[in-house]
Amino acid sequence: MTYTLQYGQITGYVPYLVGGAWISLQIAFLAFCGGMVIGLFGAMARTFGSSTIARLVRWYVVFITNTPQLVQIYLIFFALPDLGIVFSPYQAVLIGMTINAGAYLTEIQRAGFLSVHRSELEAAETLGMSRMQSVRYVILPHIIRVLFPPLSNQYIMMTLGTSMAAIFGVEELTGRAFNVNATTFRSIEIFSLTALIYVAITFLATVALALAGRFLVRARMRVL
Amino acid sequence: MQTDGAYVIASFFSYYNIVFLLDALVATLLLSLFGCVIGAIAGFMLAISRRSTSLPFLPLRIAAGLFVETFRRVPFLVTLMLIFFIFQFVRLDVSLFIVALASVCLIATAYITEIIRSGLESVHRNQWDAAIAMNLSAAQTLAYVIIPQAWKVVLPPVFSFFILFIKDTALASQIGVVELTYAGKVLNDKGFPASLVFGTILVLYFVLSYPLTRLGAWMEATLAPSRSR
Fold first, then answer.
1. Burial tier of B212 (Cβ tally within 10 Å: 0-12, 13-18, 19+)
2. Which of B85, B168, B205 is closest, CB to CB, to A66?
3. pLDDT tens, B193-207?
4. Nearest to residue B42, comparing CAs of B130, B132, B102, B110?
5. CB spacing of A191 vs B188 below 8 angstroms
6. Which residues lie below 8 Å from residue A61, measured CB to CB, with a gap of 6+?
7. Minimal CA–CA distance to A80: which of B193, B174, B187, B181?
């Protein structure tokens, strides 16, 4: 019944785990950037596209957001090889996360597009702004201010989401935790340490994003 | 291996496989439902304790804050592993479903606390002040003034968190809980083609989640509090 925590045995693995955290951050960043591109086109298609394209994008969003990311990656990783398309675990996870993030980011960016009022555009026109000027000085500053908080929130969620890469054998933070667990059997210590590293990296990211949001785009964000 | 597609599909949708998948579907639903109901109750208490201002409650308030901020920043998979091994080391002999449920409850409590807290904050300060002026106790203030106004703000996001969590419980397959994703893995291991198996699993999740999403959207539209104050 009694269990003595022995962190001594795993302190040597801390650099190894922190290296894994760096890979987690990379996956999250790449998938987020890819998702932003998909989301931008998706949001534009839903707002300005023809009804057929808008409907297609809507179904993409509805289907992806109503099914688990893990099973989507399973499909990419295990089903596509039947068609002769083979991805490495890292690629499969990255593609799956990008497609998944694309759906959520489409919705978020669409909300940003919708938040621009017609009257704002009319005011810009009245002031004699060209189309480009109204985009540069009216639409973009507005959209960025509205979108920054939900986007940074999504980014944090995605950082946590990268942990499922471990299931496919990618050696990011959780994957490396599994490795260390398999060698040392100090399960509670290793997973609590891993949890602590996740808390640290997402906390740093939150603070950095909130500061950036406050001072760069003047979004209304709580730093703590 | 060259097998007839129609035969594979027919044998995949055999009676026993369908029952197996439906059982798994129910397990997935129950896991997130129980987790969110327990999480909502615990989250409500934590949210209240995070709002309390009196000195005796200070340690509780700090503990609640730490709990929330920690468990919102740990991936579900890591929490699951941690709880799994803790249960193992304290020799608590319970089913894997309970282990997964315990981790779902922890995570749900952390997230729902934040939702409820922002719901309580959405009630205007004047209402709290008015309640003090009326000489209502803290419990009375909550019961007669705050909750009647806040529940409409809280319910839609809690419900969408519940739907979000239906998908996150897919990770519980990693410790061997027989829910939808695990059922998919089992059927895939039995030799059914991955595209068929995981395609079906995706459709089942969709069938579970989409009506609830529509219900949530409807709820949000009908409960939307009037902005006039």
1. middle
2. B205
3. 899 999 999 999 999
4. B110
5. no
6. A42, A103, A106, A107
7. B193
For an interface test with B, the pick among A25, A27, A65, A66 (most B C-beta atoms closer than 10 Å) comes out as A66
Q: Is B35 on the interface with A (CB under 8 A)?
A: no
Chain B residues whose beta carbon lies within 8 Å of the beta carbon of residue A68? 167-168, 170, 181, 205
Q: Which helix (H) or strand (E) holds A104?
A: helix A89-114
For residue A176, give how far its alpha carbon lies from the nearest alpha carbon of chain B (Å). Answer: 12
Q: Which of A165, A114, A122 is nearest to A142 (CA)?
A: A114
**Measured between alpha carbons, how far is B165 from A196 in angstroms, rounded to an integer?**
22
- H/E stretch holding B5: helix B5-12
| Token duo for residue B44 | 């409500």
Query: What residue spans define the domains of chain A?
Result: 22-171
CATH of domain B5-115+159-207: 1.10.3720.10
CA B207 to chain centre: 18
- Candidate from A23-32, A170-179, B55-64 with smallest mean pLDDT: B55-64
B15-51 and B58-71 helices, crossing angle to 10° = 140
| Residues of A within an 8 Å Cβ radius of B | 1, 3, 62-63, 65-72, 74-75, 78-79, 81-82, 156, 160-164, 166-167, 174, 177, 181, 187-188, 191-192, 194-195, 198-199, 202-203
Q: Does domain A22-171 have CATH number 1.10.3720.10?
A: yes
A75 CB neighbours in chain B (<8 A) are 194-195, 198-199, 202
H helix runs in A49-88, sequence order: 51-65, 69-74
Task: Evaluate whether A27 touches A93 at the Cβ level (below 8 Å).
Answer: yes
CB contact under 8 A, B167 and A191: no
Q: Does B210 or B9 have the greater pLDDT score?
A: B210
- Chain A residues in contact with B81 (beta carbon < 8 A): 177, 181, 187, 191
- Token readout for A205 is 């990211």
DSSP letters spanning B69-104:
HHHTSS-HHHHHHHHHHHHHHTT----HHHHHHHHH
Q: Could you give the percent of chain A with pLDDT greater than 90? A: 58
Which percentage of chain B shows pLDDT scores above 90?
Answer: 48
Model confidence, pTM = 0.89
Residue of B116, B107, B102 lying closest to B51 (CA atoms): B116
Residue type, A33: C
Question: In chain B, where are the structural domains located?
Answer: 5-115+159-207
